[in-house]
Amino acid sequence: MIKRLQKHILWLPVIAWMTVIFLYSAQDGVESYTSSDKAIKSASELFKSINLQGLSEFLYAYIAQFVRKIAHFAAYFGIGVLSMLALLPYRIHIKKQVLISFVIGFLFACSDEIHQLFVPGRNGSLRDVLIDSLGLCLAIAVFVLILRNVRKKAVM
């Protein structure tokens, strides 16, 4: 009973991370863009040589859009890593683990974009699902490479 419970506990970080994504997606358009703006200004603090005040509105909007897409990629990279970790104790074949992890992330990305269709000032986007899926795929690929490397070293 305890071992089964331990397996399932590893899903809590996946659920928690998905909840964070859901809450950000539930922000209306103004709140969402304000969050992006804060992230850009925080990033500019790291690079004092970049003065964002002098940028044209067009260039600033382009940078804001880029930051938002990087956030999509990173959020789903996290889902990829967390879901692969959660599946480890089940001792299933790596190909099946990859498939399950991808399907979970992909379906969540689709549902998240559908959810945004109902949030004022937001819209759902197939492009965002693609970006989310790329983050997910990279996380899974990196995870598989690391796992194979660890298993090779364990055999040696």
Structural class: mainly alpha
Nearest-angstrom radius of gyration? 19 Å
Portion in beta strands: under 5%
- H-E string: HHHHHH
Note the total helix count.
Answer: 6
Task: Please tell me what the overall shape is.
Answer: elongated
Low-confidence stretches: none
Strand segment tally:
0
**Mean pLDDT metric:** 86
| Oligomer class | single chain
| Distance between the first and last residues' Cα | 34 Å
What can be said about the biggest beta sheet?
A: none
What tags apply to this protein structure?
156 residues; mainly alpha; 6 helices
Task: Give an overview in words.
The chain is mainly alpha-helical. 79% of the residues lie in helices and 0% in strands. The protein has six helices and no strands. Helix 2 packs antiparallel against helix 4, helix 2 (12-25) packs parallel to helix 5 (94-116) and helix 3 packs across helix 4. The mean pLDDT is 86.
